[in-house]
Design goal:
Layout lengths: L2 E6 L9 H9 L3 H9 L3 E3 L15 E6 L17 E5 L3 E6 L16 H7 L24 E7 L2 H12 L4 E9 L6 E5 L2 E3 L7 E3 L7 E9 L3 E8 L6 H8 L14 H7 L6 E9 L6 E5 L4 H13 L1
Parallel strand pairs: 6-13
Antiparallel strand pairs: 1-3, 2-3, 4-5, 5-6, 7-12, 7-13, 8-11, 9-10, 11-12, 13-14
Helix pairs in contact: 1-2
């Protein structure tokens, strides 16, 4: 049901961009606010504003907020190349291939982890939103590696809490352009949606706290292989933080990677792989660790770099 809101701009938002003001007033994302403005659902003193327009305290704001589009329910669909690393009555741990999203989202038409598990006859927890039942964390569609899915309701609630409380050790390897200086470091920079509203994220003042630790494993002429540990798990966190350091993941065109280098190495996606995941088993309490080898495309690119260096 469409919601209609008519009210003056609060004094505390004087001078804010209107998309940012809408976000703060109604709890919308900046992207969603920009969509409402573009659709003509926002009037400022009776006129449709530009999303970058600055608001004046007391200006009359009229906003129509249609219900957000809902993600489709997961469809059982086999996912070639998705391997089961471990399974019991409460969890299933997979090795996720590239081109596979964790769960259905608006606009995604490709395969999903949930769909692949359902197609193979695996049960998943029913907790959470219908389109992401059992999903306690996510990997980007083109990021490969270890991912755990909850099968029981108890496992779901305990794993969600463990991820929230940072009791899970998530380790990634990333091939980035150039050579980070220092070779080992920490990026502590808040992340939120990019103001452009084009699906990217960025280091943004007032964003969600985000902490990434990195260590150089191997240096090549044009790139460096890093081991990365995450304290937080923001969307695109590693990709955003590496780009902010001016060392984007090789192949990550969304965040400024060099297409020439990616083509030379045969990399058609961001070079980012979840190599291990450690957590306390939600039922037994025992610490468990699962690992994943590099997929063929990533391993081949390293062979090329080593031959050149």
């Amino acid at each position: 049901m469409t919601e209609q809101r008519n009210l003056p701009v609060p004094d505390g938002l004087e001078g804010e961009r209107i998309d940012a003001a809408l976000s703060r007033m109604f709890g919308l994302s900046r992207t969603r606010a920009a969509e409402l403005i573009a659709a003509g659902d926002v009037l400022l003193d009776g006129v449709t504003p530009a999303k970058s327009e600055r608001v004046r305290a007391g200006a009359w704001l009229q906003v129509r907020i249609p219900p957000p589009p809902t993600a489709p329910a997961p469809v059982a669909e086999p996912v070639p190349g998705m391997r089961i690393l471990y399974e019991d009555e409460d969890i299933v741990v997979i090795d996720k291939p590239t081109g596979v999203a964790a769960h259905p989202t608006v606009g995604w038409t490709g395969p999903t982890v949930l769909g692949g598990l359902l197609a193979a006859g695996h049960r998943v927890a029913t907790s959470g939103a219908a389109e992401r039942q059992g999903i306690v964390h996510r990997l980007d569609a083109n990021t490969t590696g270890v991912m755990v899915v909850a099968k029981s309701e108890t496992a779901y609630s305990r794993l969600k809490r463990a991820f929230k409380e940072r009791d899970v050790e998530k380790r990634y390897h990333a091939l980035v352009q150039g050579h980070p200086d220092p070779l080992r470091g920490t990026v502590d920079a808040p992340i939120d949606r990019h103001p452009s509203g084009n699906g990217r994220f960025a280091v943004v003042a007032g964003g969600k706290p985000s902490i990434t630790h990195y260590t150089t494993i191997e240096a090549f002429r044009a790139a460096s292989l890093l081991e990365i540990d995450l304290e937080t798990g923001r969307t695109h966190q590693i990709r955003v933080h590496m780009s902010a350091l001016r060392h984007p993941c090789v192949g990550d065109m969304l965040y400024g990677a060099d297409p020439t280098l990616a083509a030379r190495l045969g990399v058609r996606r961001q070079w980012l792989h979840a190599v291990s995941l450690s957590f306390d088993h939600p039922i037994t309490g025992h610490r468990v660790t699962f690992t994943s080898d590099y997929p063929e495309d990533l391993a081949r690119s390293l062979e090329i770099l080593r031959a050149e260096s």
